[in-house]
Amino acid sequence: MSIEEAITPQRNERLTAERAYELYWADLLDHDATFTCVGTGCSAPLICACLDKPEQNLRIRPYFRSRRLEDHAESCEVAHGRGEPTAGKQPDVFEAERPADHFRATTAAAQADPAAVPARRVATGAGTGLKPRPSHYYRLSSLVQKFLEHRRDKDLAEATVDIGGETVTYEALFRNIYRQKATDLLGTRAVWWGTASLRATKEGGYYLRFSRPFRHDDGELRPTITLTAKDIDAYPVRKLLRARLDKLIAEADGYCVVFVWAKPWMPKDAEKPFVRFYVNNLDHIDVRGPEILEELKNTSRVGT
Ligand SMILES: [Zn+2]
Question: Origin, by domain of life (predicted)?
């Protein structure tokens, strides 16, 4: 059984598996961190699967699970679903910026996070453990994971996400750059995605170049993205980012699939036109292995 939320006594914080994953990669949760169930009157110990795996796809993703079903209390609705409404119909929420101190070592960070709920309320058994509330995400990778799942479940056109002050469907938000006309889209902030090649730069950063192009006049333009060492070093989840990118370079020769939440940018009056995506916040880029192309292919909707 896959469980989405748990309490970590180490931080006295109720958190999602995605958040536990980020904290682990920010060196704020131990490899052997313990978690407990959020169910009413339940204190079943949980473990977080895939916590230390840099890559993510449909099969590999962080989630909580208990070792034994018997560990859960009789009253636990997580283990013994009482048919309570889930957050299914609410839009997911993508926050463009993290709360200040989101990665503080202490529990104070939890208070600033609208997605976090003080663990105590549940531990006292006063409230129910499964109040429906929207999922809040900060890393684009979490949204990409949802995109893959909705695509598999064939409900991209119905599932919505609240992003940049608008509520949009996953279908409208995610756009493949392939052969779209660049100049028509310069004002369009979306999650642009496509296959790309990745390499490390001499300066300790990374350079990405899409292998599929935008259209421009009679030609084609392959957008590029530069991630500087300076930006990466200032990024709290840098260990995960570097582990993912280095793994792709080592194992796939830099062949990858990039997702970036940005607007395409072109210089005005350049002699030779080009397109770039500027990533000011490294939470807004996700780079994955080519195996997800297989997942995308296998789950592509009828008629596309
Ligand atoms: Zn439980």
Answer: Bacteria
- C-alpha 287/C-alpha 213 separation (Å) is 17
Tokens of 223: 């957008």
In the chain, domain spans: 5-90+124-131, 175-298
pTM score: 0.86
Q: What is the DSSP string of 18-58?
A: HHHHHHHHTT-S-TT--EE--STT---EEEEETTT-S---S
Report the separation in Å between the CA atom of 34 and the middle of ligand 1, taken as the mean of its atom positions: 14
pLDDT digits over 239-263, tens only? 999 999 999 999 999 999 999 999 9
Name every residue whose Cβ is closer than 8 Å to that of residue 255 and which is 6 or more positions away in sequence. Answer: 195, 197, 198, 248, 290
Q: What is the pLDDT of residues 78-95, one digit of tens each?
A: 988 765 555 456 889 999
Side-chain half-sphere of 49: how many Cα atoms within 13 Å?
13
Q: Which CATH architecture has domain 175-298?
A: Beta Barrel (2.40)
- Return residues with CB closer than 5 A to ligand 1 (ion): 37, 39, 42, 44, 72, 76, 78-79
Share in percent of the chain as helix, strand, coil (round to 5): 25, 25, 50
Distance 147 CA to ligand 1 centre (A): 28
